Amino acid sequence: MPNFSYKIKDSKNDVTVGIVQASTKEAAAKILIDEGSTILSLDREKANFLQRSLKILNWVRVKDLVIFSRQLSVIVSATIPLVKGLKILTNQTENAYLKTVISEVADDVDGGAKLSAALSRHPEVFSFFYVSIIKSGETSGKLDEVLNYLADQQEKDYDLLAKIKGAMIYPVFILFGLVAVSSLMMVFVIPQLTSILAETGVDLPLSTRMLIKSSNLVLNFWWLAILLLIGVIAGLRVVIGTEKGRYYWDFLKLRMPIFGRLFQKMILVRFARSLNTLMSGGVPLSKSLAIVADITGNVIYKNLVLETAKEVESGNPIATALLKSSEVPPMVSQMLNLGERTGRIDEILDKLADFYTREVNNMVINLSTLIEPIIMIVMGVAVGFLVAAVILPMYNLAASL
Predict the structure, then answer these.
(1) Does residue 320 lie in a domain region?
(2) 72 and 215 assigned to the same domain
(3) How many domains does the chain have?
């Protein structure tokens, strides 16, 4: 999502500069106007190649951000002056880039800027969602509570992603090893075997002929395979970069066998948890929905959440648009409807987040249990094919002597 640098005047006529993330300039302007600010200037930031490269190199892990949020929460709760607390965190932070960012934030706060405004100048580290939570804490005077709650939610998100990544390590490692062994055989073993068998004139079985042809293709046209792979990846990135391409890509992800349901549940966890965090921080429901729309990470759900935000602004219940969509389980819509009627929507969102987190955990465990035997079967078939392709011609050769 692009960044827009702004210069605004707030209700107290104080001039503030910062950066806001939004899909378009109009969306960025709406965010600032909804906060009661008068826009003096608003321009899209254009990063050059060097800046984009440095952004990739200067990477802040989710774990680093979780630790920062937790430590800052403790410092604010202990009534330590904010500038002094930020400088303490500068010395404690291990990530070199985050250390630099925190130092700059401390200087900005020391110069009179609000913490949220200082953080917004580093959108590559602190997302618009993160800044909005901090801003709500400053407005309500509950910055320590908001920071503590934000750290709790970030830790839950981090734990969930860690479990999913951990479950995928074993199958990815096995598949990588299988591809590596197959490639080595194609390049070094099969050519030697081909030269030996060519001299004997023995009839080759189908598996051996297939393996020899595959080896010849790899040896003679490896550069074409690399070009095709690069072309496919580049083409896919270009297509996904378009509005229609992104829509169809996200649609296909949700329709994938088994994994589609996993993606859906992960999005629902992110939606419920993020919306609950914003509302608990005092952000109005319609604005919370507009912020959460960009956090879902899926265009279909983003459009649905934005439509929900419009319905809420028009005075309709939050479940109005959700009830019409087949992408949202009926339970979610009905529980949100009930939560809004009873005034306990924050509790409902918390329960939904916990429920779908358990669902994701169970799916990941079941997938990892299911993937292991599948991988072993695939490996057995692949190894059996390779062994048959190498041993059978040798057996035929020995039998003919």
Answers:
(1) yes
(2) no
(3) 3
Tokens of residue 247, six digits: 């829509």
Question: Is residue 123 within 8 Å of 101, Cβ to Cβ?
Answer: no
Q: Assess whether pLDDT exceeds 70 at residue 46.
A: no
For residue 6, being part of any structural domain is answered with yes
Six token digits for residue 382:
């692949």
pLDDT by residue (tens digit) across 98-145?
A: 888 999 999 988 888 889 888 888 888 888 778 888 887 887 777 887
The answer to whether 8 and 38 are in contact (CB under 8 A) is yes
Rounded to an integer, what distance in angstroms lies between the CA atom of residue 359 and that of residue 65? 26
Which pLDDT value is given to residue 304?
Answer: 92
Sheet of 38-44: strand order equals 15-21, 3-9, 38-44
**Same-domain pairing of 3 and 64:** no
* Residue-range definition of the domain harbouring residue 121: 60-126
| 48 has a pLDDT exceeding 50 | no
Note the pLDDT of residue 147. 83
Same domain, 172 and 274: yes
For residues 110 and 26, membership in a common domain is answered with no
The model's pTM: 0.69
Percent of the chain with pLDDT over 70: 91
Does residue 52 lie within any of the structural domains?
no
User: Do residues 79 and 191 both lie within one domain?
Assistant: no
The CA distance from 353 to 152, in Å, is: 13
